[in-house]
């Protein structure tokens, strides 16, 4: 079945460091891929998405490219800020094969220190 | 603010009691989802509504769980005879309608349940 595997956390970085959070997926068809962010005490917020191979999603300095050949959707940011401290979830949607539900990874906690 | 609201935000109950949560999705959004998120895990799908019809249910949704969406507007999730293992965050999601962006789900803030 469909699934998402995320890099284990927690991740601690200094401000202005480069961030990579790995995400790989398994899917029957051609899923859409998403990154959601969850700040402390809040619900999930959509960060970015890509709906087909080679698409790049971007938002707030974060980027992720849909790589079909490696079944990956790694999240990157060139210079993290303290305000980026949160839990990041990779997710996929594959409606033709798995209905309308989302499949989420286990989340990666990021702490950015000044 | 995603426009999806959930109440209550927190609920503490004793084992064996019944609890009910409410979700008010973005108005005029036909689809509504419930997820459960336990500590250190990603959200797991529970059930899905298209208007008032409950079209999909996860095997996680035991007989003690029931969800409704009368008139296709707000939805309720009830847990009967709560168990400590039910302690989790319960999330509601509502995707926008129309072909553009139809696969994105917008989440409410969640209801955090603690069963003592």
Summarize this structure briefly:
The complex is a heterodimer of chains A (114) and B (116). Chain A contains one helix and twelve strands, in the order E-E-E-E-E-E-E-E-E-E-H-E-E. Chain A is mostly beta strands.
Describe the 3D structure.
The complex is a heterodimer of chains A (114) and B (116). Chain A is mainly β and 114 residues long. Chain A is built from one helix and twelve strands; from the N terminus they run ββββββββββαββ. Helices cover 4% and strands 50% of the residues of chain A. Chain B is built from no helices and eleven strands. In chain B, strands 2, 4, 5, 6, 9, 10 and 11 form a seven-stranded mixed β-sheet that branches. In chain B, strands 1-3-8-7 form a four-stranded antiparallel β-sheet, with no helix packed on it. In chain B, a hairpin with a 2-residue loop joins strand 5 (44-50) and strand 6 (53-57). The termini of chain B are far apart. The mean pLDDT of chain B is 89. The chains are: A mainly beta (114), B mainly beta (116). At the A-B interface, strand 5, strand 6, strand 10 and strand 11 of A face strand 4, strand 5 and strand 10 of B.
Which helices and strands, and how do they pair?
The complex is a heterodimer of chains A (114) and B (116).
Chain A lengths: L2 E4 L4 E4 L4 E3 L1 E4 L5 E7 L5 E7 L5 E4 L2 E4 L9 E3 L8 E8 L1 H4 L3 E3 L3 E6 L1
Parallel strand pairs in A: 2-12
Antiparallel strand pairs in A: 1-4, 3-9, 5-6, 5-10, 7-8, 8-9, 10-11, 10-12
Chain B lengths: L4 E3 L2 E4 L5 E6 L6 E7 L6 E7 L2 E5 L7 E4 L6 E5 L8 E7 L11 E2 L3 E5 L1
Parallel strand pairs in B: 2-11
Antiparallel strand pairs in B: 1-3, 3-8, 4-5, 4-9, 5-6, 7-8, 9-10, 9-11
Quick one: biggest sheet of chain A?
A: 6 strands, mixed
Distance between the termini of chain A: 41 Å
Number of E strands of chain A: 12
Q: Helicity range of the residues of chain B?
A: under 10%
> Biggest interface: chains and residue counts?
A-B, 25 and 24 residues
Q: Give me the strand/helix succession of chain A.
A: EEEEEEEEEEHEE
Approximate strand percentage of chain B: over 45%
- Shape by Cα distribution of chain A: globular
What is the count of DSSP helices of chain A, taking H or I runs of 4+ residues? 1
Main beta sheet strand tally, sense and closure of chain B: 7 strands, mixed
Pairing-aware structural class of the strands and helices of chain B? mainly beta
The number of distinct β-strands of chain B equals: 11
